[in-house]
Write a structure and sequence with these properties.
This protein has about 260 residues and is of the alpha/beta class. It has nine helices and nine strands. The chain is globular and about 55 Å long.
Length: about 260
């Protein structure tokens, strides 16, 4: 039975095709997360490409949305993969995706529950669990993610986990990645896309990652989700202003 469950499904990504809100499943509209402005009765998210990137300011609800998607896919809202239920960090994070998932409906073709939900805040708890679980098992030595620097550990973790069939949800993966490491992450995203069996849903503040070609780039505001180009994002505009005159930009920021 396990081999049947784990076999590769001969269909290309995306597997999760559409998300929408079912107002009848909301008990209290004033309670979080349903009070978030973008979660109107007409909220809908179409995922028509293998890579979807969501951008927006802090507090708009990007992480909560990703948590809700992760729970729908069978992952813990605090981070991890199918079957991994962390006991040492779930209570340390403010997670509301489980509540949101109760009011979400999804269209899958087909439903895929393999993959991973990555959260920067919980990476080391997850990595510690994986390192410990791998010790003493037959086969090659465990990856030992924690023996690397933060950024190297992230990348090695991504390389190890993110090239199998599944849906992969990344919440600000750039948190521990230098610009050079972000370029390495772009290469990993390209390999995932080229495999045709990986679906990526990612939230990021990094213009480097936003610029990934062929991705569907969406901006989340209080009005909902809207298609956007990287050049139209505030992140890109601010970065351009800084690069044009770093000293003047910083002086202006401090003065205000």
């Amino acid at each position: 039975m396990s081999s049947r469950r784990n076999r590769t499904i001969n269909m290309p990504a995306p597997y999760l095709r559409r998300l929408w809100l079912d107002p009848s499943r909301i008990a209290d509209r004033k309670a979080y997360p349903f009070c978030l402005p973008f979660l109107g009765d007409d909220f809908e998210l179409s995922l028509d490409r293998s890579i979807t990137i969501i951008v927006g300011e802090n507090g708009t609800g990007k992480s909560t949305l990703l948590e809700g998607i992760a729970v729908l896919a069978g992952y813990d809202e605090a981070g991890g993969g199918k079957g991994y239920r962390p006991v040492d960090h779930s209570n340390a994070l403010e997670v509301m995706g489980g509540e949101l998932s109760k009011a979400l409906r999804a269209s899958w073709l087909p439903k895929i529950t393999n993959g991973w939900f990555f959260r920067a805040e919980s990476f080391f708890s997850v990595a510690r669990y994986l390192d410990e679980a791998a010790r003493g098992t037959p086969g090659p030595p465990p990856p030992d993610f924690l023996s690397h620097s933060h950024g190297e550990g992230f990348l090695r973790f991504f390389e190890e986990r993110c090239q199998r069939q599944g849906i992969f949800i990344f919440d600000e993966p750039e948190s521990a990645l230098s610009p050079a490491r972000q370029m390495e992450f772009l290469k990993l995203m390209h390999r995932m896309e080229q495999s045709t069996i990986c679906q990526v849903v990612m939230a990021t503040h990094s213009p480097i990652l936003m610029a990934y070609p062929n991705a569907r780039l969406l901006r989340l505001t209080k009005y909902g989700l809207e298609p956007v180009t990287v050049e139209q994002t505030d992140h890109f505009k601010v970065m351009c202003e800084f690069c044009g005159d770093p000293a003047g930009f910083v002086e202006a920021v401090i003065a205000n």
